[in-house]
Amino acid sequence: MRMVVPTLSNILTGFLAVLIVAMPREYVKGIMAYKLGDPTPKQAGRLSLNPFVHLDPVGTISFILFEFGWSRPVPVRYWKLKNKKKDLLKISILGPLTSFLLFFLCGFTASKLPRESFWWFLMVKAAKYNLTYALFSLFPIPPLDGSRILASLLPDRYMEWLIKYEVYGILFMLALLVLWIIPLVMNPFVTFIDNLVQMIVR
After folding, report:
1. Cα 141–chain centre separation
2. Which residues contact 35 (CB under 8 A, 6 or more apart)?
3. Which of 84, 86, 61, 88 shows the shortest CA–CA distance to 74?
4. Residues 125, 14: contact at Cβ < 8 Å?
5. In Å, what is the CA distance from 147 to each residue of 15, 73, 92, 184?
6. pLDDT at 95 over 70
7. What's the CA gap between 59 and 177, in Å, rounded?
8. CA distance 31 to 87
9. Mean pLDDT throughout 173-201?
10. DSSP states of the chain as a string?
11. Which residue has the higher pLDDT, 44 or 169?
12. 140-154, 162-176, 183-197: which has the minimum mean pLDDT?
């Protein structure tokens, strides 16, 4: 598994790219959850355009070093939604869809910028991060969107069990990251996405 050399330039562009990735994705999910009847995102201060409230420290470091990671998930109390299963599915799918849209937007923007410039590097990284996050977030590992998509498709008792243990999911992901299991699994995706982005921005 390759790891990005943590130079000042890579850290700066990587961190700014994470801001571009995290804020729109989590903000729109919070807005949708609120519109569908769950006040939790508003109560938690997540209906905010401040990108820092949407960052997860470990996920941010993972983005910078491995070119994939995650943001701080928006808290959703599915039992407060108007139609708990259907609405949870809508909210969860919105995350990857937002990242896919941002991937195309950042890739298109990069293609119009002078190559090798600071802004070009930033948009290229943002494009990579968005696509890797879109794919990674579909893994059925709590608290990623993939686990909530799975939960919304399960019978009620299994759905409640999966969401009940969501709080421990971040510890599970951290363990998989420390043991290099997630980086090894993601390596082929990151390599493919890197090649794809380079083709788009030419």
Report:
1. 13
2. none
3. 88
4. yes
5. 26, 12, 9, 20
6. yes
7. 10
8. 12
9. 87
10. -------HHHHHHHHHHHHHHHHHHHHHHHHHHHHTT--HHHHTT-S-S-GGGG--HHHHHHHHHHS----PPPP--GGGSSSHHHHHHHHHHHHHHHHHHHHHHHHHHHHTSPTTSHHHHHHHHHHHHHHHHHHHTTSS-TTSHHHHHHHHHS-HHHHHHHHHTGGGHHHHHHHHHHTTHHHHHHHHHHHHHHHHHHHHT-
11. 44
12. 162-176
Taking residues 164-185, report their average pLDDT: 82
Mean pLDDT value across residues 155-167: 81
Q: What is the 3-state secondary structure (H, E, C) of 45-99?
A: CCCCCCHHHHCCHHHHHHHHHHCCCCCCCCCCCHHHCCCHHHHHHHHHHHHHHHH
Q: In terms of C-beta density within 10 A (0-12 exposed, 13-18 middle, 19 or more buried), how is residue 63 classed? A: buried
* Contact status, residue 96 vs residue 138, Cβ threshold 8 Å: yes
Condensed to tens digits (0 to 9), the pLDDT of residues 20-56 reads 999 999 999 999 999 999 999 999 999 999 999 999 9
pTM: 0.93
Per-residue pLDDT for 146 more than 70? yes
